[in-house]
Design a protein that fits this description.
Largest sheet: 4 strands, antiparallel
Mean pLDDT: 93
Structural class: alpha+beta
Number of domains: 2
Strand content: 5-15%
Number of helices: 5
Number of strands: 6
Distance between the termini: 44 Å
């Protein structure tokens, strides 16, 4: 049965954004037989254990189904990765923020992207570039 709003997480009601099935296949720790050929969405709600859900509501992938911890699900854990390509953690980003509100990690990620070393569409559970998340953390400042 197709729900009226296919991008709404069936567990928490939070709108999700589309994620390529290749991202899910790279990150789940369960059989790839579970990845049906339907559109999937990423649930960003930290209080929800659903990471991916099918637009037709047929199946879910939970945090325990993934090989990686998910920053959006653990937004206050200093040891969770925010940048999955260049292995920058939340704590590392926070500690890199200088007194003038800058971080060399942003430059490191930009350099990696320019060099063609970025693979966010496969490595980041969100299925898109992490740079926006990193910039938001830096702008928020070194908050513990």
């Amino acid at each position: 049965m197709v729900r009226k709003s296919p991008n709404i997480c069936p567990q928490c009601g939070t709108p999700g954004h589309s994620v390529d099935n290749a991202t899910i296949k790279c990150l789940i720790s369960t059989s790839l037989h579970r990845v049906e050929n339907v559109k999937h969405y990423f649930c960003p709600d930290a209080g929800c254990s659903v990471v991916y859900f099918a637009e037709d509501g047929s199946h879910l992938f939970l945090t325990e189904d993934l090989r990686e911890r998910v920053y959006q699900k653990e937004p206050n854990s200093d040891d969770v990765l925010v940048c999955y390509c260049f292995l920058h953690t939340l704590g590392g980003i926070r500690s890199s923020i200088t007194d003038d509100g800058q971080s060399s990690i942003i430059d490191d990620i930009k350099y990696g992207i320019q060099q063609g070393h970025c693979a966010c569409d496969w490595r980041n559970p969100e299925g898109k570039c992490c740079l926006g998340n990193v910039v938001s953390i830096v702008k928020a400042g070194n908050v513990s």
